Amino acid sequence: MSTHARLYWAASDSLVMIGRSLRHTVRSVDTLLLGAFLPTMLMLMFVHIFGGAIDTGTAYVTYVVPGVILLCAGYGSANTAVAVAADMVNGIVDRFRSLPILSSSVLTGHVVASVTRNLFATVLVLAVAFASGFRPTAGPLEWLAAIGLLVLFMLAMSWVSVFLGMLAGSVESASAFTFVVLFLPYLSSGFVPTATMPGFLRGFAEHQPITPMIEAIRGLLTDVPVDNPVPAAVAWFGGLLVVGYAASSVLFRHRRPR
Amino acid sequence: MTDDPIIRASGITKSFGKFTALRGVDLAVARGSIHALLGPNGAGKTTMVRILSTLLRPDGGDATVAGHDLLRHPDRVRASISLTGQYAAVDELLTGEENLVMMGRLGRLGGRAARRRAVELLERFDLTDARRRIVRTYSGGMRRRLDLAASLVTEPPLIFLDEPTTGLDPRSRQAMWDMVRELAATAVTVLLTTQYLEEADRLADRITLVDGGRVIAEGTAEQLKAQVGDERVELRLAGLDDFDRAVRDLGDRAVRPDRDSRTVSVPTDGSAAQLRALLDAMAARDVAVTRVELHRPTLDDAFLALTGTATAGPTPATAPARTGGGASTAVKENR
Predict the structure, then answer these.
(1) Which of A95, A96, A256 would best serve as a mutation to test chain B binding (most B beta carbons within 10 A)?
(2) What is the reported pTM?
(3) How far is CA B13 from CA B16, B19, B83, B322, in A?
(4) What angle do CA A120, A123, A127 make, to 5 degrees?
(5) Listing from the earlier edge strand, what are the strands of the sheet with B232-237?
(6) ipTM of the prediction greater than 0.95, yes or no
(7) Chain B contact set for A13 (CB, 8 A)
(8) Is A171 on the interface with B (CB under 8 A)?
(9) pLDDT tens per residue across span B265-320
């Protein structure tokens, strides 16, 4: 087969698989509801319940929006692990692998569907944020940069989730991972300034990858002052993306399901 | 060329850690045939199918599948085969139609051809009415039908069916058997694994008996049964007195006399004439015979004799005999 034909079929396989995963998304009503409900509730909770008691030096809604966006995007991406784990215990992946297709296209389908889902959730979070008084100062370029960073974050988290979903061996253990991801953003500068945390937590919070990502998006969207965290954010999640993708591809080819 | 076996494997070995699944399996499957890999759970059937369908790499041995070297050109092998696993490998959240269109597009059919093929197969497998329903709402039998349809989308010359009827109710199993037979009539080769002797007996042109990762025996169902022994007639006598006289009269021909159950067996060729002669002789001596059963060796007997293990078949072996015979299939069960 020529390189051209190869590329054509690789793209075609990936499109078919993306279509499959998007249909799954639309038809998993419970996941869909949770995906819409969680961001909305979190946003309202932080701004209107906790917000009054937390002093960050700026309006709390302005401070907290990037944290909620990443929390939801992270959790949404982590759910990819559950979808992948469910696929792996079903015979359909065997069938896909016995076809002469680009084997990683089934994983690509999961990741693209995940990013699409999460972008919708992000729009929802922003809508609630605006309604709650969020007034970003970003210009068009800064918005673009912020969206770019977010997509990088979603891609990296999704590929890592794909890898863990394959590793998990069951839907239950894959769900446990989403729980970890749900809590990780709390140990960052997302909801309260790290300076208010006890020493050992602060050390973790300041050096975990989510913190520079949150700071970067905060710096781009609002006028809250930050050091330049963009290189660190790109390095972390660019690295995770490469590692997650490579590890997933290798594991998918060599793993014997069940 | 076409007389070449479509699968030719030799010396296939495979271990998972300390567990040795295959200890040097040879296999030749004739084009257009139904070939069964028969064996108990853990015999290595599924591992063998996974290797031949490129899902697993063997540790040793080599194989040619559909004219392509399994190890050097797995992609070419994949283009000629289709695999149906132990659990229906269809997408639960897609409709029946979407499943088939998806398989068609992945099988390089192109959008329009894939849709046309899907409609055709839905019709053939009696799923047209359910085509817009999500597979999750299908019954077990419908899923297997869809699964088989999905295997046929690209019209591969070789189909692997891994335990196609496990977990199906008797009616769905019968329907599945009919469909597999239809397939074989269209020059498709089917390699199926099963732990059901009855299934192998009814469907397969040739049977390879596997146990403990080895091939124990190979041949047609008749050949395998013939390895176990001949048919015999079992007579049940009215009283102990009848029993004693019958055994004395039969002399050397009496096999396995059992005074407790008042039964004695006699080798037979199964012909009516011989049976009549036997019963007439008994009547002439005034020996009262109450029941007659014809025992012919079943694959169960072959299996027991060759492996020393029972299987989980739907017709469990009724004979305790490992010592070469004593099958007990009542006349009424013989069709």
Answers:
(1) A95
(2) 0.75
(3) 10, 11, 21, 29
(4) 140
(5) B255-258, B263-267, B232-237, B289-295
(6) no
(7) 106
(8) no
(9) 888 877 889 889 999 999 998 999 999 988 877 777 777 777 664 444 433 333 33
